[in-house]
Structures are given as C-alpha cells and as structure tokens.
Amino acid sequence: MPVFVNGNTPGSDISPGVSRLKRGATNASQEWAHKCVNIGLINNMPDAALEATERQFLTLLDSAAGGITVRLSLYTLPDVPRNDWGRQRIQRFYTGLEGLWSAQLDGLIVTGREPRTPNLKDEPYWESLTKVLDWADENTHSTVWSCLAAHAALLHMDGIVRRKSTEKRCGVFDCIRLSDHRLLAGMSSRFKVPHSRWNDLSADELTACGYSVLAQAQGAGADTIVKRRNSLFVFFQGHPEYEPDTLLLEYRRDVRRYLTGETDTYPSMPQGYFDEGAQEALTALQEKAMSSRREDLLASVTTAVDGKAIEHSWRSCAERLYSNWLNYVFEQKERRLSRGAVASHAHA
Given this model, what pLDDT does residue 7 score? Predict the structure, then answer.
C-alpha cells in the first residue's frame, strides 16, 4: 500500500509509491480509514540533511508498509536553527508543531541532529522536545526516537546521561539479537545496522531503569531499546533508515571539516563499509592530508570510491523492523477502535 504525505509532497526524488494527500483531506470510506495508520515524522536534521532524511523515511515506510496505508505528516521543532532555504522548505512542506497537539496520530518518529552544546538540556530546542515526548506518551500507540532524540528522551524521562566515547562509532555494525520481542520478529539472530555517533549509553543503567535492550551492536553498544509506558517507546542508537551512501557523505563532511581546520582530528573511517580497495585509497589520503592539510584533497574521497558500489547490507533488516513497527501500531489502533465500538454499543 502507498504512503500518503499530508500537504505538498516534498521533492521529486522520493519513492514512486509515495503520493500526495492534500492537507486536511478526508476519505468518505470509513473502512479505508481503518486500514491505515497516521504517522508523524518530526524531522530535526540540519538543513543540509533535511531532504535526504525525508526521502530515507518515506522510502523505508513505503517499502515496509505491506498491506497498510501510511498517512504521513511532517513536523519539525520550532527552535531548531535554520538558514533561509531551510525555513522556506519547512514553511512549504511542514506543519507547525502547534498542529501536532491536535493531530490524531497513531505513531510518531522523531529524529535527532548534531548537538551544539555538551549538555543536551542546553540545546535551544530542549523545551519543545520534552513537550513532544510527554505528548507522544499520551497520544500515540508507539513512538520511535532516533539517535540524539533517543539520548534526549532517556535523559528527560529517567536522567540517563549519555557518555562520550574516545572515538566516533561509525560504520555498519553486526548486531546480535537479544530478545524475541515482536519488533524483531522474522529477523535473524545477527543483522547489520549503520551507526554514526560519538556518545553511548550504559546497558546496566538502561536495565536498572526498566528498559529492554533488544539488540546489541558489536563494538557500538546497544542498538535497539524499548520501554513500555502509555505508549511503546522505541529507541534506536543506530540508523536503519540510512541509504547506501549516507555514511560516505558524512565521512566526506568530516574530512572536509578537518581539511578546513574546523576540527583537529582526522575522522575515523566507517567500519565494515568500504571495500578493500577504497580502504587503501582512503588510508593513503589520510596520510597525505595529515602531512599537508589542503582543502583540494577533499575530491580524493569521492575518487577513492568512484565506481565502487556500496552494499545496502542492512536494507532488508530495516524494512522488517519498520514493517513490524507499523503492524504493531495498526493492531493497537484496531484494538482501540474495537473497544470504542463495544463501548458505544453498550451505551446504545
């Protein structure tokens, strides 16, 4: 079934299965309405990644939906810093956060972004994010918190503080399944997920606060975490939604930051991602850059992987994971509607 986007469909390069649903439009068929789920995507990514993040989640939901129709609404936090282009895009394609409070969503996905302060509570959008978290607990069947949003949610709910690692955990990691939770139904005992972050969470602290770690990334800590509140909260430290070249683009960005002097440390190469030939070329580039830091060397990152296909080794797992999540949300919606119908009949 297709994904429908409330409002104007952003971009022309999204999945062919994604269609436009005019803002406020309704369908006369109550049966059709019951066979769909209303999902919100709060996209807080920086302007340079705004479109890519839209596309990643749209195409993933489209592939994972199966027999479920997904009606997607786009939101962003109002306090996230934007340039003129970003503000125009938000104004054109997104609903203001004030529209979320009255939205009848079944599920919600909240993305993170690179922090600007050591303490997440000092981020300009902290207050808005915590309001979203409290609202989601009372008004959704399930909410997905992605990467930095997961760290912020855990800090707000239970005071769990993320810890910065000495090295960035970046690459495609083997994950070990630790649970038979329905979110992992149909997935193998080992699967791959991209991770890209400096910070990690203590598994012992998570368990002590009532969280369940469903999968562990070897060398990168907890991957999938859940806690049942009023809503089922799902926390991903990784990025199953990533496209094949996303880690490459992030690595290229980090190399540029080093070459231009924004950072003093050359970035670590993503693990389990490049083939042997690309790794050798990128290692040679690193040695050259560290001996003579020049911005014109940046083109060599693209040259090193030019013509080499990057395997989308995590795609089937990502589709299964989000398919399980959408089916859970749909079943919870059906149960709520059934309870409502029974209650109405009892009072008739």
Answer: 61
State yes or no: is 175 an active-site residue: no
Positions in the chain whose pLDDT score sits under 70? 1, 7-34, 340-348
**CATH topology for the 3-243+312-346 domain:** Rossmann fold (3.40.50)
**Beta strands at 107-110 and 18-21: parallel, antiparallel or unpaired:** unpaired
pLDDT recorded at residue 1: 60
How is the chain split into domains, by residue range?
3-243+312-346, 246-305
Give the DSSP H or E segment for 132.
helix 126-139
| Residue 209 is a catalytic residue | no
Alpha-carbon distance of 179 to 201, in angstroms, equals 18
Instruction: Exactly one of 54, 123, 241, 243 is catalytic; name it.
Output: 241
Q: How many CA atoms lie within 13 A of 279 on its CB side?
A: 10
- Report the predicted TM-score, pTM, of the whole model to 2 decimal places: 0.91
Instruction: Please indicate whether residue 239 is annotated as part of the active site.
Output: yes
Q: Which listed residue (147, 170, 175, 317) is catalytic?
A: 147
